[in-house]
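Example record

Each entry pairs one chain with its bound ligand, zinc ion.
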Amino acid sequence: MDFICPNCKSENIQRLSAVFHHGYADINATGTGVGYGVNSGAVVSTTQINGSSQTIAAQRAAPPYKKKWYDSVVKYTFWYLVCMFITYLMFITSKDDITSPLCRGFTIVWIVMSIVKIVTSIRYNRNKYPPLIDSWNNSYLCYRCNDIFELRP
Ligand SMILES: [Zn+2]
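Structure tokens for the complex follow.
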């Protein structure tokens, strides 16, 4: 098969993973900082500083990510504890606060949200993520028409 862009027939194409890693190498070389999380907001601000097409290309070439349910669960747990603590401070008068409807409500919301997050994340990582990363591994960027397409040998 020919390694050309199906849209404009250009041979000036590059594998997305190479575009992505090259773009990140450039970010570090410009000295705007090392150790950016690949899916963090820091990348956006770097683009504003650099404004280079390389970085924008790298952003477009970013791979799909697995869902990290534990990040969300840690966040939910934090807010759950904050809510419980505030509730405790406000209704410190009686001893059966912990079974008050408000605390029970927080506990139910916390458990339900955590379970939903874990289940949907595991499902996504198991069913949706593999074809996405496979597609990404076989995708190319055309430097002439800027199209992103899949090529499979
Ligand atoms: Zn093209």
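The pocket of zinc ion is lined by residues 5, 7-8, 10, 142, 144-145, 147 (CB under 6 Å).
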